[in-house]
Amino acid sequence: MKLTLRKYWIFDLDGTLTRPVHDFEHIRGELGLHPDADILGTLADLPEPQRSAQFARLDELELYYASKAEAAISVNEVLQALAERECRMGILTRNNQPVALRSLEAIGAAHYFSPDDVLGRDEARPKPDPHGIEQLLTRWHADPGQAVMVGDFRYDLEAGRACGVATVFVDHGVHPGWPELTDVRVTCMSQLLQLI
Prior knowledge:
Elements: E1 8-11, H1 24-31, H2 39-44, H3 50-67, H4 75-84, E2 88-92, H5 97-106, E3 118-119, H6 131-140, E4 147-151, H7 154-163, E5 166-170, E6 184-186, H8 189-195
Parallel strand pairs: 1-2, 1-4, 2-3, 4-5, 5-6
Helix pairs in contact: 3-5, 4-8
């Protein structure tokens, strides 16, 4: 698959553009969740007012981690290369938008993204739902065959596959991998730089 022909790029944020700093075990512990729980799904199922209180606490925890975000190796080189090719770029994250924007500022990459193209859980249904990708493609008047979803977890790949965009799996060796959902596998962003 020739990624050089793709003009529309959608990135996951945590663990893809940033080094993995979110301690999800700690977050689940702070929220009183089971160690394997899907955080957003579990909180969404809570009754009010507990749901709102837990989401507010999650926002606090995520903002804390966003302020500590560090760019993954070669991320800014990848984004610069795409910008030079006049590619459109967006973010699709399960964080909320203020957290995502703070993370992008922390890693020095905010200027590559229009804030309207940074979609969090309040702007689009959370991945693996393809809703966010669909929104971006519609906004950009882009065909799925021109687009790429880049992420480090199966939710990213499932969302991309559901929309018919190319999928790039950033494999940190933490997960078993999902070859049936992956078009291109890289172990780091510097490998992706070589492919674009």
